Amino acid sequence: MPVKAGTTIDPRATRARVLASAVQLFYERGVHDVGVDEIAQHAGASKLTIYRNFGSKDGLVEAALRDRSDRIHLWLTDQLAATAPGRERVLALFDLLTVWYARDGYRGCAVVNTAVETRHQDGPVRQLPRLHLARYRDLLERLLTEADIANPAPLARRLLILIEGATTITAIDGDPTAGEDARATAELLLDAAVAGAAGTAEG
Q: Could you tell me which of 51, 58, 64, 55 has the C-alpha nearest to residue 132?
């Protein structure tokens, strides 16, 4: 795309604009239905710029997934900092997700959506969703450890299943109350874990 005379080109700003366009369009329509031409037009950049910065469409998809995962986990970490460590911080994670589910244009988790779309492919695009879920498990384990839950890994996995189940149901049904149901179930699991630990200590 030609640049107007007198316009200063900022490569970092151009790359960020392309990435933002890709993240938006991939989320709205999926990675298979959006081509490089459309992303270039949306971002006001050239295809050459996209290939120079990302190497290929797969490289752009990979960068978009990393960006989305980073933003999700940064948002969760920042928001959870407002709640004191312990049981309520674990449950606050589910409250945040319920807020996310209620946002206009919510279509599920972009990272998981892409994992479904690319399930027959190999490479980084397939590995990134696994890393995304691993980050969730790590976050949950940390929150549970702060809440004095012994052996937090099994419970973290169960809570992650609740999160991903609620995420999928909300994306399909369009009803954000699945987040509330997931929170209520998480509360039961937390109480059972605390009660089990207390019973073991007494025995």
A: 64
Whether the Cβ atoms of residue 25 and residue 38 lie closer than 8 Å to each other: yes
Q: For residues 133-168, b (16+ Cβ closer than 10 Å) or e, as one string?
A: bebbeebbbbbbeebebeebeebbeebbebbbebbb
- Taken in order of first residue, the domains within the chain and their CATH numbers are 10-55 (1.10.10.60), 64-202 (1.10.357.10)
Task: Say which residue the tokens 């009803």 belong to.
Answer: 175
- pLDDT score, position 81: 96
pLDDT at 3 over 50: no
Is pLDDT at 200 greater than 80 in this prediction? no
* Sign of the CA dihedral running 71, 76, 79, 80: negative
* Rounded Cα–Cα distance for residues 69 and 164 (Å): 14
Q: pLDDT tens, 65-82?
A: 999 999 999 999 999 999
Task: Name the percent of the chain in helix, strand, coil, to the closest 5.
Answer: 75, 0, 25
CA distance 113 to 31: 9
C-alpha torsion sign, points 88, 89, 93, 99: positive
Q: What are phi and psi of 189, to 5 degrees?
A: -65, -40
The mean predicted confidence, pLDDT, of the chain is: 90
- Three-state DSSP class for 193? helix
Quote the pLDDT of residue 122.
74
